[in-house]
Structures are given as C-alpha cells and as structure tokens.
Amino acid sequence: MTQSEIRQSNATQPEAKLGQEPNASAKAIDVAVGILMRPNGDVLLGQRPQGKPYAGYWEFPGGKVEANEDVASALRREFMEELGVSIVCAEAWCCVEHVYPHAHVRLHFYISRHWEGEPQSLEGQAFAWQGAVDVQPLLPATIPLLQDLDEVRRAVQS
Ligand SMILES: Nc1nc2c([nH]c(=O)n2[C@@H]2O[C@H](COP(=O)(O)OP(=O)(O)OP(=O)(O)O)[C@@H](O)[C@H]2O)c(=O)[nH]1
User: Fold this and answer.
1) pLDDT tens for residues 57-72?
2) What are the pLDDT digits (tens) for 29-52?
3) What pLDDT is recorded for position 25?
4) CATH value at residue 53
5) Which among 33, 88, 116, 157 could disulfide-bond with 62, CB atoms 3.0 to 4.6 Å apart, if both were Cys?
6) What ipTM was reported for this prediction?
C-alpha cells in the first residue's frame, strides 16, 4: 500500500476526544487500526492476547506506529504480522484519542475492503467476523465508534 492508495473517505469525522480529557503533558502514542470489511458489511475483530494491557478485550487489529514509520506502513506491517493479510488499499476513516491508565493513544482507524490472504491467527489470538458487533468486552475507546460503523456497513450493503 502506498500513500496514494490511502484515500480520505466521506465518512471521515473530525477528531473526537473520548474518555477522560487527554493530559496535555502526556505524549500521545500513534496506533494504526484496520477494519477489514467484507462486501456484506461484516468486519473482523481480534481478541487481545495475554500479557498485554486489556488482555481478553476485543479490538480491531492493529498496533503502535514505530519510530520512522508512517501510519499506512504500520497498518500494513501489523496486518501481515498478526493475520498474514496484505492490505491492498484502505481509506482513512476517523481518528480518536483516549487516555488509558497505561497510555494516551491516538487511534488512526482505516477501513479496507480490498486485501489479499485469509486472516490467520499468527499470534494465537481469537478473531471473529461480525455483522452488528456483539463480542464483549470491547476496548473502551472503540465502543463509541460502533454506531457510526453500522452506518458505513449499511451503506455498503445497499
Ligand atoms: N489495535 C487496536 N488498538 C486499540 C483499539 N482501541 C484501543 O483503544 N486501542 C489501544 O491502542 C493501543 C494499541 O497498542 P498495542 O499494545 O496493541 O500495540 P502493539 O500490537 O504494537 O503492541 P506491542 O507494543 O506489544 O508490540 C492499546 O493501548 C489499545 O488499548 C482497537 O480497536 N484496535
């Protein structure tokens, strides 16, 4: 995936600040998050493995952007490492910040409808394709996005 393949979608929202107001002195950690969306609107979620904060919580796949890496490259790397999936193209969807006890994160959400490979559990994590998302518990920063995501899902189905 190249920068030119990262498109801004109409669904992009202004940055929202969720949860506790981020502490200006805490540096936000950038995280690339990808939502694989099938033609019927189903989306892929994974369960955080043991040993990580919020182990057992469900999330959209992704991970931290490394030093000297852009968000699109991080997205592609994380999907290959976690799921063995090659993202062919993805659209920036929204960006939210959340302050957890363990970190202040800035989550860059992308939606991809075009990828290569079937998702595999390369890190031993459970994953699930979902219509209306009903796995629990979900990471707190992700929950408020589900309503907007449902609108995107419905739009691709119609
Ligand atoms: N992937 C992902 N991370 C999310 C979501 N929502 C959310 O709050 N996060 C937060 O974003 C951060 C992601 O960091 P991570 O620890 O999973 O990243 P990583 O895979 O690079 O981990 P590592 O440092 O062990 O290599 C966590 O603080 C996690 O709580 C989501 O939907 N997907």
Assistant:
1) 999 999 999 999 999 9
2) 999 999 999 999 999 999 999 999
3) 56
4) 3.90.79.10
5) 33
6) 0.95
Question: What is the reported pTM?
Answer: 0.87
Which residues are near ligand 1 (CB < 6 Å)?
A: 31, 33, 52-54, 59-64, 98, 100, 103, 105, 107, 139, 141-142
Please provide the DSSP assignment of 51-84 as one string: TSTTTT-EE-SEEEPPTT--HHHHHHHHHHHHH-
Domain that holds residue 78: 3-157
Give the total number of structural domains in the chain.
Answer: 1
Nearest to 75 by CA among 152, 6, 13, 136: 6
Q: How far is the CA of 63 from the centre of ligand 1 (A)?
A: 5
